[in-house]
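User: My instructor asked us to take a sequence, write out its structure as tokens, and then describe one feature of it. I'm not sure where to start. Here is the sequence I was given:
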Amino acid sequence: MAALYPAIDILEGKAVRLEQGDFGRRTEYAADPLEAARRWVGEGAARLHVVDLDGAREGRPANLGHLERIASDTGVPVQYGGGLRTAQAVEEAVAAGAARVVVGTVAFTEPEVLDAMIERAGERVRIAVDVRDGVVATSGWLSRTSVAAPDAVLALKTRGAGGFVYTSVDRDGTMSGADVEAVEAVCEASRPAPVIYSGGIGSLADLEPLAALPIEGVIVGKALYEGRFTVAEAQAVL
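Assistant: Let's start with the prediction itself. The structure tokens for your sequence are:
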């Protein structure tokens, strides 16, 4: 059974959703991210995925205070990413309440920093494989590499991280459906390390093919905020 991770993306102190990672195309859903967290946990969510969009853009965590409030208030495990580009930043996120940390940019640009993160946080570290136009994107999705997702996963899966978070940037925030074929290839490359999928979920039907894959979980944002389905309905499908 795959787990559901309702997404709480924080930008300028608010819970928002971007479309395809574009900071210029944002929709605000809650004036306080804790309000969104309480809503999803109240609906039965057993875990949360929090993204520090300010941190992703700035290259350092900017919303650890919100992370601490969400983790302490809800009492559920929180997966946190965005701007975690030093081992110290990872330690600060864990100290603020993150059960897991998601790192992307440094995994592809500074492997020695990734090693230091894993040395300090072990399997709490998950590597973000964010894909735009078929290749891995970094720096808050603002830069692109020339590396395909399965190749990146094959190269990184022996480093000691707890697994991967695969995001289809092209589909993120569009509710246009999951990139099932791509994540299937990533799961094959990552085995036995687990994979969490994100991007494009717009209906319960989009979750069904993912539930048939050997994935650990699915991150859902806009579809929940727009009322396409409930937390309980999504968890039942997964």
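For the description part of your assignment, you could build on this observation: The longest strand covers residues 3-11. Try explaining in your own words what that tells you about the chain.
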